[in-house]
Design a protein that fits this description.
The protein is an alpha/beta fold and 374 residues long. It has one domain: Aldolase class I (TIM Barrel). Helix content is 36%, strand content 11%. It has 13 helices and 9 strands. Strands 7-6-5-4-3-2-1-8-9 form a 9-stranded mixed β-sheet. β1, α1 and β2 form a beta-alpha-beta unit. Bound molecules: S-adenosylmethionine (SAM).
Length: 374
């Protein structure tokens, strides 16, 4: 959900005070997959979500302890995800606790009958601030085919309106695959019609069921990145690209073209205080994920277990686990990512590198960029 700082308005995203964040100490975004249970059967689902809850899910009490531990990081952005968080009966208790201890929780429920006004009202009362709803294609026919449950589009769009009626912040999530890439103009219109505050666009990661999907060529994601940049001046919605570090390189290139300078000059200027290009935010770098059974991953799309909150301190694992430290060190990257001038702000998708090659430090296969010789 919200907050991957690959986001831009045409101003290149100079909106949040990220300057003092130290990703070696604290993540910007913490996501807890409270359950993998979900009534959708999405073709790309990273979690391979199932209908029923897992017997070893963290209990309510363990959830409270986890929330306390997350609070030790300070006040990172925090999201309850799934599966479908509404499949957990204690979700509003967990929400209220998160709110009570000073977190500002978001939630990403699934477009099923559980996403009704009553549940959204309870979510609002318990303290949810942002609700992200996945809509992957602009019509019932196309969206429902992707999510493999008839009626999901109708429930999701209706819920989006309810979220706004209740005064909650609305985020729409869309994953880009060969399936919907030609539908993006209509999708942008729908996001505008729904008056979403944020549109988070996920570039497919071949993990979970996503491994079975046809992979688009890298050029297609380059075109999408340029298209997304164009939308930043057209839509009144904040746009974020997820698992798409190279989108930031595209933004630099486009700003450079507009300003008649080089992309590296834009980067230098922003780093000397005229704007900002944030440090890369990526798996394990500004980001940490806790699975339904308490496993600690660098991200939900990079399911390598670094510990378990039942036995380990989340804070210690994030700060000191060798994999997390390696993921934050762009000098460790290999292939084109290792040679790339933009590696400190991009670093490629570590999850995609892992999904495709089995090496989380390998180059991101969705990026077309050939680094310049040093
Ligand atoms: C893990 S889902 C969980 C929330 C909820 N079940 C839903 O459908 O939105 C959060 C976001 O991750 C995206 N996602 C899931 N699997 C993905 C994959 N393999 N690659 C990229 N994005 C993915 C989904 O489309 C969704 O927008």
């Amino acid at each position: 959900m919200a907050g991957h700082p690959h986001s831009t308005k045409r101003s290149n995203g100079r909106r949040r005070p990220f300057g003092k964040l130290d990703f070696n100490q604290s993540p910007f975004l913490v996501i807890w997959e409270v359950t993998r249970a979900c009534d959708l059967e999405c073709v790309h689902c990273r979690a391979e979500a199932q209908e029923n809850r897992h017997p070893l899910e963290l209990t309510t009490e363990e959830g409270f302890a986890l929330l306390d531990e997350i609070r030790r990081f300070g006040q990172p952005m925090f999201v309850f995800t799934g599966g479908d968080p509404l499949k957990r009966l204690d979700i509003f208790k967990l929400t209220a606790y998160a709110k009570k201890i000073g977190l500002s929780p978001g939630m990403s429920p699934s477009g099923t009958p559980l996403l009704n006004r009553d549940n959204l009202q309870q979510a609002a009362e318990a303290g949810i601030n942002t609700v992200s709803i996945s809509i992957d294609a602009p019509t019932a026919e196309t969206h429902d085919e992707f999510r493999r449950v008839p009626g999901s589009f109708e429930l999701s769009t209706r819920a989006a309106k309810t979220v706004r009626d209740l005064g909650l912040r609305l985020q729409i999530n869309t994953v880009i695959t060969t399936y919907n890439v030609d539908l993006l103009d209509d999708m942008a219109r729908l996001v505008t019609d729904l008056e979403a505050a944020r549109w988070e666009v996920f570039y497919l990661v071949p993990t979970g069921r996503g491994q079975e999907l046809e992979r688009a060529p890298a050029e297609q994601y380059e075109r999408v990145s340029n298209w997304l940049y164009d939308q930043t001046s057209k839509l009144d919605t904040h746009i974020t690209a997820v698992e798409a570090g190279f989108y930031r390189r595209v933004v630099l290139e486009r700003l450079a073209e507009e300003q008649g300078v080089t992309p590296l000059e834009v980067l230098e200027q922003s780093q000397s205080g005229h704007g900002r290009f944030l440090p890369k935010m990526n798996s394990g770098s500004g980001f940490v994920f806790i699975s339904h059974i308490g496993e600690i991953y660098p991200s939900g799309f990079l399911p390598i277990v670094a510990g378990n909150v039942r036995a380990d301190s989340l804070v210690d694992v994030y700060r000191h686990h060798p994999m997390f430290q390696e993921l934050r060190n762009s000098d460790k990257l290999r292939g084109r990512c290792g040679r790339c001038e933009y590696r400190t702000i991009c670093a490629g998708s570590r999850a995609r590198a892992y999904g495709v090659t089995g090496d989380y430090l390998a180059e991101d296969p969705f990026c077309v960029y050939e680094p310049q010789p040093a």
